[in-house]
Amino acid sequence: MRRRILAGGAVGLTLVLALAACGSAEPDEPAAVAASRSLTVWVDEARAGALEGLAGSYGAEAGIAIDVVPQTSETLRDGYVRAVTQGEGPDVLIGAHDWLGELVTNGVVQPVDLADADAFAPAAVEAMTYDGVTYGMPLSIESVALVRNDALATTTPATFGEVVAQGEALVAEGRATRPLLVQQGDGGDPYHMYPVQTSFGAPAFRADEEGSYTTELALGGDGGRAFAEFLADLAERDVLDPAVTSDVATQGFLAGESPYILTGPWSTAAFAEAGMDISVLPVPPAGDLPAQPFVGVQGAFVNNLSLHQDAARAFVGDFLATPEAQLALYRATSRAPALTAALDEITDDPITTGFADAGAQGAPMPAIPQMGMVWLYWGSTEASIARGEGDPAALWDQMVANIEASIAAEL
């Protein structure tokens, strides 16, 4: 019988492919041969439709049946780990690179051979590498960028401080109400402000000589304190505001309240639908170093306990690494392909190519488990600075001490 594994009551999108009789073995056919004709893939709902079509064409040629099982983004990772450790789960998982720490620690993914790593964006390959081993096939990349309302500004200064000053001039003229929009919320949002932070020389974690993240924090010291002071200045200039949530920032930009917003490709569809003329630009630095946003990479992982490992590796390594596959996923999600040859074929979408250029300057979000201990202290500290609840440098130093203590307690 075909092996189909569904989680949480999700309904598999069964693809009936080239083998008309793939649902059962022929009387004299070994069960292992029939089983090898099927694969199960778990993916988030946004990519399920595109992946279903891709799997259909691939399966028809390869002579296998593929079940694409859509999952909610919130349950996909934990559901996968739980299923595989119980001897179940799919053969292939499509998910985010920053899951790697948990996936590798739990032994639920296996190394993936990138036949030509140079064919992908360097940050994408780096993101799929953990402790020097590549575990995923890079599919798409995303990061924040500086998005400009071309009706309010047609040129952009070279530094973040000058961008804010340009926005302030428009506010003084009555053409805008905020110099720049960046989502925060009561808990802060260090993800969106990270490229500015790195320009002060304060990345989240230090990297070793091979480029892999260590567990040593790097967001403290003089660079971190200088960034904290800069955050306080932004708060005074009406840029950093806990009252500006994601929805407030997006709606404000749509309403023409600011010439700029720091955001990602998840927001720009609304701008395009509204008929706005926008430009997507790399985030300019505020400090002396380049601004490096976090780069998020979606990739394909092979279940380390799959009963169909050869077929899964072929699907991931031979097909999902093709321009055809990556362009189909791009059309479904508006995320830039990780494969350079696929990105080069996108010549009529300056928004996607603009985000790709912005992400090219970035660094993958750390996939180490210790990253999960950073966010709460990090965000709440930025929110405290924005509200003026203490000396910025002292608040930052306390944040670093709290995070280091949390990491030490787990090591």
UniProtKB/TrEMBL annotation:
GO MF, any single term: maltose binding
Superkingdom of source: Bacteria
A Pfam family this chain is assigned to: SBP_bac_8
Annotated keywords: Signal, Sugar transport, Transport
Signal among keywords: yes
InterPro entries reported for this sequence: Maltose/Cyclodextrin-bd, SBP
GO biological process, one term: maltose transport
Entry GO CC: ATP-binding cassette (ABC) transporter complex, substrate-binding subunit-containing
Signal peptide: 1-20
SUPFAM superfamilies in UniProt: Periplasmic binding protein-like II (SSF53850)
Similarity field: Belongs to the bacterial solute-binding protein 1 family.
Name of this chain's protein: Arabinogalactan oligomer/maltooligosaccharide transport system substrate-binding protein
